[in-house]
Amino acid sequence: MIKAIITDIEGTTSSISFVKDVLFPYSRSHLPEYVRSHIEESKVLMLLKDVSKEVGAKLTTEQAIAQLLQWIAEDKKVTPLKSLQGLIWEAGYKKGDFTGHIYKDAADTLKAWKQKGLDLYIYSSGSVYAQKLLFKHTEYGDLTPLFSGYFDTHIGGKRDAGSYCKIAEQLVCPPNRLLFLSDIKEELAAAKEAGFNTLWVCRDGVLESSDEYKQVNSFQEINLRDC
Known about the structure:
The chain is α/β, with parallel strands linked by helices. It has helices at residues 16-37, 42-55, 61-73, 79-95, 104-115, 128-136, 161-171, 185-193, and strands spanning 4-7, 119-123, 149-151, 178-182, 197-201, 215-216.
């Protein structure tokens, strides 16, 4: 019996194109000015210090900006970058420059699961702050009340089985009563190694031949009794 469901975001609850074609370009184009105009704020200063720690050298503001832009170009999952992107995206959401994309089947199913008493969580490489922003500003309204908690790379990499062990420990729940949803096979492998139940969400409509992972095209196809 599944007690809680942990889901990925990009390619699972939300389209990859929203992240790739909307969020990332927005953060890239707005990052330099955002850092310069918020340089006196403690949270921005702390993130810049974290950038220096990450590269092992004390960087000037402009050097830190250049490093952050390089990480974006390389699609690096670096924690200070993800945290800063969350702040930039918050400004964009508030201005109405975009809304968070959520697949309708995901929104409907998550609501149904919540009504049935299941605990729902998010685990994404994007910062917890960015996760909350996305689900708060959707065309279906504020969906954050559906979730009991959020996890990001502070708990560990998504392809590391140890990360899922830590999640199970924090939820005080046996791994075999947890279900992880993702579109990335390597993430599913790590979760499975930690004892989780897994489901491979294949949004492109093409299901692969796999004896290891159950696959679905949408949340509507998920039958928790089979997990």
